[in-house]
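Protein in question quoted in full.
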Amino acid sequence: MKKFFLIFSCVFFLAFYGFAQQVIRGKVTDASNGTGIPGASVLVKGASTGTSTQPNGSYSISVPANATTLVVKYLGFIIQEVVIDGRTEIDIALMQDSESLSEVVVTALGIKRSERSLGYSTQEVKGDNLTLTKEQNVIGSLAGKIAGVQVVGSSGASMGGTQKIKIRGVNSLAGSDQPLIVIDGTPISNSNFSNGGGGASGSDGSYTGADYGNVAQDINPDDIESVNVLKGPAASALYGLRGQYGVIMITTKKGAKGPKKVDVQFSSAFSIEKVGNLMPMQNLYGAGSKQTWNTLDNGQKYVQMDYDESWGPKMDGTPVRQVFSFYPQDPTYGQETPFVPHSSNIKDFFETGNNAVNSISVSGGGENSTFRLSYTNGNINGIEPNTWLRRNNLGLNTSLDLTTKLTASANINYAGNKGQRPAQGYDGGSRNFVQWFQRNIDMKRLKDYKYADGTFLHWNLDVPNSDGSLDSYQPLYWNNPYFEANENLNNDDRDRIFGDIGLTYQVLPELKLSGFVRTDSYIQNIEERSAVGGRYLSSFSTGKYQNKEMNYEFLGQYTKTWNDFSLAANVGSNIYTRKYNYLLEKTEGGLISPDFYNIAASKDRPTVTSYLLRQQIRSLYAMASFGYKNIYYLDASIRNDNTSTLPEKNNSYYYPSVSGSIVFGELLKWKPLSYGKVRLSYAIAGSNVSPYRTSFVYGIGGIYDGPLGTINTIYVPDDIKNPDLQPSFAHSYEAGLDLKFLNNRFGVDFTLYKQQNKDQIIELKVSGTTGFNTTIINAGEIENKGVELTLNGSPVRSENFSWDAAFNFAHSKNLIKKLGTDSKVYPISSNTYAGKSVFLNSYELGSYGSLIGQAYQRDPATGKILLGANNMPLYTPATHNFGTVLPQYTGGFLNTFNLWKFSIGAMIDFQKGGRFFSWSKMLAQKSGQAEETAAMNDKGHNIRDAVAEGGGIKINGVYAPGTVINGTDVSGQEASPYVEARAYYRNTLGTNVYEEYLYDASYVKLRELSVGYTFDKKSFSKLPFGSLKLAFIARNPVMIWQKAPKGLDPSELSSGSSSISWLETGGLNTVRSYGLNLNINF
């Protein structure tokens, strides 16, 4: 009986409970377009009951009879509470939350996450801020906009030149610390093409030197929705070997689902470009090495054409034979003309360039599809004659729901670049006149560089015969700059395709599987000419570079929310392959005929060089994020890479990371604090080595003509392979605090970090007795620690006026903790002139990149310069350490003002500290061109006047020990002698004391300015425009402040392939651009 009663009771209560439940069905949609939202959480308020919506947004949930309210949540939307009120069918439309949307962050592998759940530092820049002034290189557009990110800009950036990026300082002794760039999940190459760059000459005396830039310039800024920078290994750990130095995550614009609607956007920008920041030159003295005249047999005076200097006589109008008068083809042949200055002769060389960018996009979607098609055309005509760059970008981004659970997507981009680049560098470039020139030269006369009979006009020739004839019209030192611009051409073209195709399957509302095939492929062709009739041996060279990278990727994503807990888990795999090859051909011994540019025109057998690289990385990875009450979060990830470039016994490594965050603002309940989060992270990441460094392979040699005939040779490489090489590991520690105040009106992002890069992969020189030159080893440890601060907010908000501001600041301290070699110094680079060098070295227990060179000898007691018996300063050997090239801190300040229909955007970036060496300034003084070489001294006389007549340069110093003058020992005596100006600048400073040309790289620069007006709809009511905005734009309009002399721009130093700027050798001048930008939405 008791058993029967117990069974009856159970059945009764279960039946009662079943009747007490009810089932509610419906659909959760996006209120903006009506499309279903998959994976939204539908919960019963006050109960543990909940479910998630299906891929089409539908849901079904059983609720207790006493339930009154449903709570619906989805990331990026406002949480909505809906009263049940007895209904069994409830459709719910969620409104997008603009504040929450701003917190959605694209993280590693393209996974979107809430910012509050991240335990590491990231920072985002919206696309509108990247295209403020239509900067066409996305790397350059990041300058000053992200804390801890420094853009190392080449002076040729406006012509597609190299721009590199550093995240959190230098992390590699070898300088190979560029971040990975990822576009919509596809990693892309950012290779650099720079031939010569520093002004190197070919082995046969021919010249090569042009900067073709890095291939990140192929990314179309008009297609970018946002850029998110993953700064440390904790953020980028899931990218393994390729992400050690950070990741630039680029998300492009896409179409949207919804009622059939097409959105058309058009933009057109046109800017004029002018040369800026020219070095001030003197205009008192002209060509020559002395202030007296040479004369011909007929008594005519003539300029010293055989000196590429301006230490000659005063330009006072004296009639003299100038260089043009020695050409029989010239109208002034045999005539004297006034010896006068041409004060703007350097400026006269530069033209007014222009930059036109036109872009159109068409986007839209339907209930089950999205698309966006875009095209951008860019045309740049440079400020140097006969230089130009043409760009074309075509992009297609589309998705299609094949079923309610299966979605196909494709993202295909084409980039085409074709250019004629200016030469740069010290030797052979068209800008050598900044360093060596004659102030009396009329640049406008040089423009007609070729006479009717084909003779080339040059400005520096050998000494004429006494009758005024010349034995040769070959230039002694430098080509006519117009000859360089029109005859010695540097051409390139590149075609590139990158993107992905993929399938995504929504297995369950909580589980999504996806697979992608991603590609990045380009072909780059380069042609360089050195014409017959110039200073250098005529030549022609070609290079064809091909690079193809493939990624085969699988990713599984699981998200689940129950009660107060949440879980986001991801597992995946990737196979990365790369094939890179090049073929280089170059003439030898000159060309057999002028204007015949072909490898077949080589006088001697041409040189042919080829190279092939293959590489593969296989990876497995997993990540899990646990959340509690939407306040406490804990993340963990691990990745395994198996790389083909390391020995089999050392080619598999694991990279773990762990991070956590607490959104304590939810706990404090302090009204002014809208949001508060503290975060901690730790991660390990590794870096790879280039292929073929661990095992022996023969190289392809030249052709040998021997007694047995012509033989193709192979050679033993000059580096010792290391079969025990391992990856370099970075250990990263990070802590941060994120705060938002007054309903998210003001924000603070503060980060402390420390990163230790251990077992660096470095190349060392070995004794020549081994038969080799170098080897590669694991050695050395670099430590970077620093602080990053971002402040943003809206100081003013009113009905007709608003002011939004963002300020970034970063300080980093670098330490070489150990080198791990017998030597305590690691040489990075050097530059030599006239047998004297300046070095860039790293020292154990010092900072990376110390500048080493000759300095003044100084009196220990007073610090004054030591003088010798000739009253000239004494100098040290090239061993003095002038400090690091790394800045103390960097930052930027972006302001946006909106007044009625006007908008103003201004971007300022700054740097404090760091050092660089200027070759141009040294040589401008050595050649007597620089303004200070003809200054007035404290006696009121020009320093070029004879010392006996009150001229000369006054030097305050102390005579060195052992100095004897006129039989008297003057050791230790203070003195202020006057010395002859040319001897001082040419033979002392310009040859021996590099201290004078090492400058502080601090600056404050207005980099971007935009002033726009948005027209009323009624202004064009009869036109099919949805909106129209016209803006004045300017790039590099003002250098607000700098410590370096005028004419040098520390923010745009020539850097070639290095991410460190320390050497200015004659790069292109700063370009200032001003124009208009029109944006129309249809």
